[in-house]
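Appendix B, example 12.
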Amino acid sequence: MPAQVTITDTTNGVPLDNFPGADDDARLRTAMAYAAAQARPPAIMLADREYTISRGPYPYYDGFRLVGSLGTTEREFLTRGPQCVVNVGGSALFSVPSRGVQNVWVSGIQFRAASGSTHFQTPITDFASGPIMADVTMEKLAWVGFATVMHARHLRVQIDRTYTNAGTDTQFKLGGSDGYYWINGGYLSSTALDATKFYIWLTHMSRSQFGPLYITPERATGIRIDGSYGGLVFTGTLLDCTGRDQTRACQGAAILITGGKGMVFDKLWFFNNAVRPASTGRNPVDRGQVFIRGSAGDLLFDGCQFSGFAAQTGYTPPGTPAIYAATGVTNVKVTAPLAPNSGTRLLQQQSAGIISKYAADDWTLGVA
C-alpha cells in the first residue's frame, strides 16, 4: 500500500483535503496560509470531488497555484464526467490584492456559482490605476453561472482552453498588454445576458493575441474594444449564433469598436448577428456585424467570413453590412472578405475614404 501523502510532501503539491478544518472554506484558508508562507509556494491540489466554498473572497498571493484532477481540462457539464468541481457561494471566490499579484496558475477545475450575483474574483473598477495581475495563467477551466469571471488589469496573462457559460453580466472586462487569450480555443456563451451587455470588454488592450475562441453571443455583443496602442490581433475567433432565433441571437453588432489603433482581425467568422440593433439601447445604434465608431483607426480585417443563410437559418436583416465605419474612424482596410452561403457582400462607411477594400471586387463599398 503506497504511503499517504502528507502536507509537507510538496513534490507534486499539497492536497487540500490533508489540511485541517471543519469544512472546505476552513481547509482552503489554512492551505493558502501555509503555501503563501513557503519560500517556494507549492500547488494546492484538489481531489476528484465536489467542494463548496462560500466565505471568500480569498486574496491571491504571489506564486498561488490551484490545480484539480492533475490539471486536465474541466468543462461546463455537471453530469457528464466532471472530475473536480468547486461550488462557489458568497460575493466572490478570489480577489486581487491592492498591490497587485504575480505568478498565479489555476488549472483543471470546474467552478460553479451558487447564484448569478457571485463573482469568480472581485471585479476591479479602476482600469487606469487599479491593481495588476501579472504573469498569470488560467487554463483548462470551466466557469458556470458567475456574474463576472474577470474584470481586471492584465500584464502577460494567459487564458486558454476554457468553458464559460450561463454568466449574468459582462464576463471578461480587461485592460492591459502582452497577453495571450484562447490561443488554443475555448467556448463562451450564456442565455442570461441582455442586449446591453458584452461577453468580452477590452477597455484598453495592446500587444496581445486572441485566438479561436468560439463565442455564441446570445443577445449581448460578443466583443467591445475601447482602446489600444496597437498590436492587438484576433485570429480565427468565431462569433456565431447558430440555432438562435430573433429574440436570442446577438441583437447588436458582434464586435463593437469605439477607439484604439493598430488592430488586426484575421480570418474571423460571423453568423446570425445584429438581428435587432435598436434593442441594445445604444446611441448611436449599432450598424453592421462589426460596428466601428469614435476615434478608432488603422484597422485590418483580413479573410473574415460573413456567412449567409442558404445552409442554416439566420435573422440578420437584409442589407446589413458586414462592417460599418462611422465618421471619425480612419484607415480601415478590408482584404479578401468572404460571404459564403449567399451572405451579404456589403461594406458601408458614413463618409467616403474611411474604408479601403482589396481582393474584394465582388463586394460593394457604399456610403450610408
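The helical segments are 24-36. The longest helix spans residues 24-36.
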